[in-house]
Amino acid sequence: MVKRQPFLKEQSLAKYPDRIPVIIERYSRTDLPDIEKNMFLVPRDMLVGQFIHILSSRLHLSPGKAHFVFVHNTLPQSVSLMGCVYNSFKDDDGFLYMCYSTEETFG
């Protein structure tokens, strides 16, 4: 995973204190494309399921593809708040690192 400069986190938190810095990366063994923008500032009260929906729209996924996000090899519940996930799994550099993958369904 790519480590970011600490000042990016400090600038983000100073400007947007109600948001958390998230870096999302593609799992190496998936056929999904890389996402253009992999850094997000998301509201603390956003659900993981809402974040997954945003991710699917950015990746232009077909309806038959189920996709998942992982944090430290853990699949967070879709009803979990991003703020809770951040508090539990944030890295020492202050970013929440997530990984996305997919699985074919309905065919």
Automatic annotation (TrEMBL):
A lipid is attached at G107 (Phosphatidylserine amidated glycine). GO terms for cellular component: autophagosome; membrane; microtubule. GO terms for biological process: autophagy; protein transport. InterPro entries: Atg8-like, Ubiquitin-like_domsf. It comes from the Eukaryota. Gene3D superfamilies: Phosphatidylinositol 3-kinase Catalytic Subunit, Chain A, domain 1. The keyword Ribosomal protein does not apply. Coiled coil: none annotated. It is found in: Cytoplasm, Cytoskeleton; Membrane. SUPFAM superfamilies: Ubiquitin-like. Keywords: Autophagy, Cytoplasm, Cytoskeleton, Lipoprotein, Membrane, Microtubule, Protein transport, Transport, Ubl conjugation pathway. The keyword Transferase does not apply. Its main location: cytoplasm. Pfam families: ATG8. Belongs to the ATG8 family. PANTHER family: MICROTUBULE-ASSOCIATED PROTEINS 1A/1B LIGHT CHAIN 3-RELATED. Ubiquitin-like modifier involved in autophagosomes formation. May mediate the delivery of the autophagosomes to the vacuole via the microtubule cytoskeleton. This is Autophagy-related protein. The lineage of its organism: Eukaryota, Viridiplantae, Streptophyta, Embryophyta, Tracheophyta.
